[in-house]
Amino acid sequence: MTSDPHIATTDSPAAHEQRLRHATVLVELGELSRAELEVADVLERCPEHLDALSLFAKLKHMRGELSLAVACGAQLQAKRAASGEMARMHLESMLHLAQDPERGAGEFLAVGQYQLVRKPTAYLALEDAFRSYVARRPNEARAACRQVGKRYREKDHEVYKLAVLAESWISELIGDLEAACETLELLGQERGFETDLDRLSALVSLYERVGTREKLEAAVNICRHLEKSLEHRAILGRLALLFRRLGRSDEAELYQRQHIAAYRRRMHRPSLADAVAVAAERFLPIERLREIRFGDSELPAEVSPRERAIACAIQGDGGAAREQLADSEAVLDLKYRANLKSLEDGLGALDQAVELYARALRGDPDDPEVIGWLLETHARDGQAAIAELFREPPIGSRAAQTLESMLQVTPNQPRVWRQLGTLFGLQPGGEDQRRQFEARAAALDQAARDRARAIGRVLSAAMYRFIGKAQGLIHEVWATREMASPGRGGMLRKEDILGNLTEEMKDNVRNIFLATREYAQAKFPHLTRDILDYTYSYKVTKEDEPSGGTSAGLPTALAFLSLFLQRPVPQDIALTGAIVTDAHDVLVLRPVGDIEYKVDAAYHRNLRMIVLPLGNQAQLEQSSLVPREISAEIVRHASNLDEAVKLAFGEGVFL
């Protein structure tokens, strides 16, 4: 089975957009394998299609294939980076190299597995300036930037600009906002730099920090100019915040609506119009479409009767939907008429649905949704009409081919194995295969339940950088245990902390283990009597670059607590937060950095919830990256481990 046969396979831009829109809806329905086929087909035909690459990165992120997700993200950043972002990305990269001497030292830069290039002399000088800043010699750092600028002012305008931006940023970092603004304003008086996007982007950030009405108004004017030059969505959230701070609520609301619409598109979250357009081309059951939470429920002014019927059905108005479809005999309309009948409770509705679906199947014998509904209905109710239908050689044969093709793509789908078992059970001599397929389905169901109840596995919100630009990422942390020798239990040895972790983080993990062990024994004495009978290990799955810091404290504590209590943490929530031990039974959460990127990552992965320290709430409310509506939808705050435990395990966890 390749990509969906109901979607046109041309190389036109319209066909590519149709496939990607279809894939976006499939992702929202949880059908990641089918979605990936659609996206891969577009990328095979058009490798430079950025929206397809972006959706492919999302799919890999959702599947936990982090190396591929990061690689796709790096390609996107390299191709999408606007001129208003590149200079700051270079400077942030220099700062992080200065903060990490082992990775940043030297005159060469790796650009491939076996290729090195010599860094330009000016870049080495600016790296030295940032090393002076890190060493708490800011005046020396700014002087070094001015020296680079003076040397390259006439020779290389880009290097000159970078040196001036570096000087301004160092002034900003030490809190000298007046000097930082003056440096950029003087640059704007020079020919060629009046409307430079890097300068203007940096100036907006400074004016926001200064915060006077005059500076905020100036920032608005700059942003309105940037709105025409930079990627549109990058500036919408900032304008919404600026207008809110200025008390101009109507304009703030306008830009906020534009921001959330652009944000949801960037995250590949379909609108009602997207879902309706996809469903009007190929059959998607209404009950499944109703599961999607649509941010935008408006439809275009001009829609077909079928599209209006689907929209009405999704919004719960089945009567209006049936009226729109009336007595249409088009195969797709027959499917939706059958679907609507199957959702009714009236006498004879099920028989009518079976009759309509059977007619639709004769017109389109390869639709897996129709085949699946009919077979599941027969397995549940023993409908004679369905048995007769699938005993017809052409219908039964095509249905078997369709289901087997689906299993080639997603072999671990118990529902499809069960449908195939029902189909073979209707054929003469097919009873043995029916039992075999149903046993396979039962085993897969049990495996899925076991995965859903994985003990000691928790999703952690993290951040990585590409050329200095921050990106959020959701990865797993694992805690496991094994029986210990007598008198040697209850411990986590440093050598049993696995993954690409800094020494600082390994020490932090051990501290959290000890604190969580004491917490568990104090709060759950009846569930932790055997806690000292085991030795423990811990692993961080994100191994592409070293993990460090303290922000994984909360997910680490929940992973150990899950193990101690033998209770799974839901796999649709992520956590981040630093843990501080106030007492053996009181663990407090402290704020962490890069919080908006971590929320961004949770929404990108379609998670239900992300738990953050309460101390990050004010910072998130001022984010120009994540709209407030998104934060309200998925973010929950906790001030201590008790509150986080209730969010993860449920309110009754301490009863």
From TrEMBL:
One of its GO terms (biological process) is proteolysis. Residues 497-649 form the Lon proteolytic domain. Pfam families: Lon_C. GO terms for molecular function: ATP binding; ATP-dependent peptidase activity; serine-type endopeptidase activity. It comes from the Bacteria. This is Lon proteolytic domain-containing protein.
